[in-house]
Amino acid sequence: MNGKTMEGITGARTNMNLMNTPMRVYRDARRRGDLAVMERAMGYAGEFAGKAEEYKSKAEEGMKEEAEEVREKARLEAEKFIQKQKEERKEQEEGIERKKSREGDVLEISEKGKAMIKEQREADGGASEGKDKLFSKQAVSTEAGDAVQTKGSADIPS
After folding, report:
1. For 98, what's the count of Cα atoms within 13 Å in the CB-facing half-sphere?
2. pTM confidence score
């Protein structure tokens, strides 16, 4: 709650409560027929009523300011939400584009590795002519680390 609103509400209530005393004096003076006391009591009651009205307007002004602050805060939150949605949408679109345009890594076998494969084939009885059973399916690794099998096979020269 806004400070002006709180001050206005408490001030108005206090002055309305303070107005009860002069009104009680006024009623008592009216029963007795004392016009001077009645006038003086009504003067005090009028002052308290006037102050209560001032505080009431102060409370209304505070409520207007508070409502404006709430509207501004809501507008800023809406803008942040929209910006966040745009960023998320952009990230999703970029993710889709990355998935579409992923090219995997190709495994290249060094000369030493080729020699080891050749030795392994010879140890198995020389059953390797052209393509190896182990390398009949070619696989590549994507950016995400997934292994993807490709069509065709890897040729390993003997």
Report:
1. 9
2. 0.49
